[in-house]
Amino acid sequence: MHRESDKNMDKMDAREKLKTLIREYGGTQKVFASMIGTTQPTIANWIAQNQIPEGGIAKICRALPDVSFEWLTGKENMPRRGYQEERGINRKGETMGQPFYSRMPASAGQLDMGHEDLTVEHISIPGVKATAYFPVVGNSMDPTIQSGDIVGIRPIDGLDRIRPNDIYLIFTRDNERMLKRIKSINQQSPKLTLYSDNPAYEPFDVMKEQIASVYKAVCIIRSLE
Fold first, then answer.
1. pLDDT for 150-178, tens place per residue?
2. Which of 33, 177, 182, 188 has the least C-beta neighbours within 10 A?
3. Class of domain 4-85
4. Residue 169: closest CA among 223, 218, 225
């Protein structure tokens, strides 16, 4: 039985569907565009025209395999997650997993990785509720997360959903991607303090207004090399 929220989402137009995906997978048009391999002006144009072109649908399905082709096109009364999530297969019957952005590293430090081209592969781990996977560079989260590991993430709805002492992947509006521990959050403060597990790295603050989106780290795939 499909969730009621999925049934309601079937009635969305293209503009509403795009806004939903942006909120859940990127937080901003710029970050979402980077995740699916396009540009922010292109996303803005799709929203303005209330239409996702065929090429755009292909990009979204390739980057976000838990979003069904049928839901995006509106050709069938299908829930957004009904195809891949419930059946675990793609339209050709091949096993699918969650996207692995092998050329879009998450920095365990403060390195600005720039605007790399995305090479999307897939990772499937039964029972893990990750929506995407990223390779890790840097050693600021040693020994918990090491350079060469892969971290699985899932989006959170907002800063008020942060759980103290958990590890998060933070996207800033300057396109920095940082894996850090958030030990507490002061709703009244304009800043957020980020912590490293490596004692050689001091905590530092970022302005909340500079945070584009936050994802919770839900699993680590350890490199053996």
1. 899 888 878 888 888 999 998 888 778 88
2. 188
3. mainly alpha
4. 218
Q: 100-221 adopts what CATH topology?
A: Umud Fragment, subunit A (2.10.109)
Whether cis (ω within 30° of 0) applies to the bond prior to 105 is no
What are the extents of the domains in the chain? 4-85, 100-221
pLDDT tens-digit map of 114-132: 444 454 577 777 778 888 8
46: its two tokens: 């799709």
Amino acid at 16: E
Q: How many CB atoms lie within 10 A of CB 23?
A: 15
